[in-house]
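Record format v2
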Amino acid sequence: MSGSVKAAGFALAFVLVASLAAVAAEQAASTKPQVGTTTAPAPAEAQPADYTSAEVGSVTVGQGKPSADTETWPQFRGANRDAIATAASVKKIYRTWPEGGPKVLWSIENLGEGYSGAAIFGGRVFFHDYDKASRQWSIRCVSLADGQEIWRWSYTHEININHGFTRTVPATDGKTVISMDPKLVLHAFDVASGKRLWAIDLTRKYGATIPGWYNGQCPLLEGDHIILAVGGRKVLMTALDLRTGKMIWETPNPHGQPAPHSSVMPFTTAGGEKEYVLSTLKGALGVRASDGALRWEALGEAAYAQATKKADPAEKLSSALVSIPWQPKVAQVPSPLDLGAGKLFLTTGYKIGSVALEIPASDPPAPKVLYSLAGQSKPADDQAAADQAGAIEQGVFETDCHTPLLYQGHLYAVDHGVDKHQGVFACLDPNGKILWRHMDVPLSLGTSLLADGLIFLEEGNTGNIRLIAADPAGYRELGLKKLNLGNDAWGPMAYANGKLVVRGLTKLVCLQVGE
Amino acid sequence: MSDKSTRRQFLQGCARAAGAAAVGAVALKLVKRADADKVWQLDPKLCSECGLCATRCVLKQSAVRAVNNFDECGYCRICPAYFDTTSEEKDDGTFTRLVCPRNAIRRKLVGKADPADPNNNYYEYTIDETRCNGCARCVERCQPNAGNGALHLQVRHDLCRDCNQCSIAAACPPAAFYRARLADAPAGYRRRGAAKKGAKA
Ligand code: SF4
Ligand code: SF4
Ligand code: SF4
């Protein structure tokens, strides 16, 4: 269908929809009562004048003392952003669990609903909270020994409950801790005192738009630099100095990439160039780590058409621009995964699926598609045939929320592409072949963390933790701890010194999983 | 509220039945069934959204309707059961096509829009039951994890003829229909994340 015919078709569809809507509006009065309360939650009030001013917010100090633990989980997905614990204590993780599972060391209850997981440094645990009654958003610092509060910094922030209030994991080097709040305000705090050092409101500074369901990006900490996708009118990504918030470099945003739900990830191209990669609602992109130069953008068909339509033919891009058969819709939550050897794995929910790219050594590196996986099962007939043959359905894989684990060349992740998107644990080889799916445990938006060949798998419906052997030969469960945290236990986990910190919708729990 | 309204509808149904009884008491006696105090119900936890509810009912417009459980609904701006998220995206992030083929879902902004944060305003979704025929397309799209499972199907007892053998029940692949006293029937609304084992079409 040509562009203009298609446009005319849509225009006609709009007219039809509009007139149907007018008729229907008159009839709406006869609508019967539905189920549950019809009073929606109160909408947000107008925003305060300036979230970044020095007068905003206050610190309260508690009785907690940092534990003597020295291992760290300094940011989202740990030190290497791969959700793999490598510290010495992983060798002492209990490989067999007693009846009832490992013991709960401490827990913090009645958190504002949310998905903010923990960062751990110097015996301190950092996470975000929200108090509905006072409308206060906070970053909390508690002891890894007993969960007692060391300090809490809070400020008034109007946030609608929109699938939880809090998201994202703070990042810290033990001296400064940074947080991205739901409305795109980046804060830096002094670890010892909880005093706020500086803050940047991305909506004001860069003209970024707060994503639907709020910000989900966890800032990347690399040495003294914070790497952040801002999705602003002019700036796509920036590196900031951790202590001062001063800009180190900025990446231009030629194709209007929006502020993402996912996070910036480190990556190495086939040519050995270090990059920061990101997936957004338009596709994916790579930025040179040394100076922030945009190196490539791989846009979905619609975003590519838009980008090339608007381009001035005289304008010469120094970056590569290619079209790929993958464009997220609604929300892009999982972050890109470095498969090694210049290969990058991208996945997203809403029936979009996954794609693997190769980022070559060329200058600029123009991504090549290695393979694609569909976002939902084949029609029932095909599936029935596959089931009969006892085969594992191939060519389908997507994950809605958490970035897969990569361990010894295999991917482990919750697959939402099959079984009505309930989420089942799966293992893939690096070429996208599904080696197994464990269909018996629905995981919703559950998450996983790996340590010494063991996977802690959290059920998103319950917060229950299953201990699994990371084995491409099959799903092998070694233990089960019923935490019964309820629905929406979707926050990422953290590990240090034999302690696993698990986030439920309204609870933070510390499990003693090793010595 | 739902229990009250369905009970009210049930009582209205009973009143109509009583009127019919006055006219043809003998005939009614002949067809009186053993479980006359029960009605056809469907269990949303078992429903696999196959679409047969819309086509197998003896009524031209099925007695089954979609219902939104507001306690479970997220009031999302982009509701995947309202917008067909596989269609072309508009500049404001909404979509060109709607899921409901009968335009039976009403979308209304709740409160005042926040211009500084247009993506996180609340929207309320209600079903216009004069239009809905229980085709379950919206129910399917509202399934976790895209939705919260707030939308589900229910038999509307003021419309249902209470056939001896419900013809949808006879066809329903996961056998989601059952007979129950309205007052005793569990609400059966699908909870978020609830496993639906053995419910495949
Ligand atoms: S026939 Fe059964 S499975 Fe199909 S839509 Fe109706 S209740 Fe659901
Ligand atoms: S069940 Fe079908 S007709 Fe009814 S509101 Fe949902 S999509 Fe529309
Ligand atoms: S009992 Fe009859 S009228 Fe009622 S839902 Fe079944 S087929 Fe339709």
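Residues B 42, 47-53, 136, 153, 168, 172-174, 176 surround iron/sulfur cluster (ligand 1) (CB under 6 Å).
The first strand of chain A starts at residue 58 and ends at 61.
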